[in-house]
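Suppose a colleague, Dr. K., hands you the sequence of a protein chain of 133 amino acids and asks what its three-dimensional shape might be. Before reaching for any lab equipment, you can write down a predicted structure in token form. Begin with the sequence itself:
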Amino acid sequence: YITMKKVWKFIEDWIWQLPQNLCGIIYKNAIKNDIISNINADSGYSIYLKRSNGGVTLGKYIFVYQRYSDLSKTIQHETGHVKQSKILGPLYLIVVGIPSIIHAALHKNKCKDANYYHFYTEAWANKLAGLKV
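The predicted structure, expressed as tokens, is then:
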């Protein structure tokens, strides 16, 4: 039978985060040939290791490059983005997702701060994940 806890979890995971979860499903299907493995997490989100560079979190879906030098730290950082998604709900893509993608694209050539995690989306994700970078 369905409990209120299960109903609330569904609302939190799927209704509240619907835009980014849909983007996660679409992205997963778009890069399916690039995905090497899936790490099952008890926390309710899916982690996919991929061949290509970069990491992205879309709702319950985390996609990370398999050869990051510190993969566990990268996954931990991305779980901070999962927490941002849960906090912001439908505003996540506007407040975090799009600015984060733009920052990632421009950081190497445009940012004066060499630390990638100086940007608010990344610093906040680290804080939520309990990282000090």
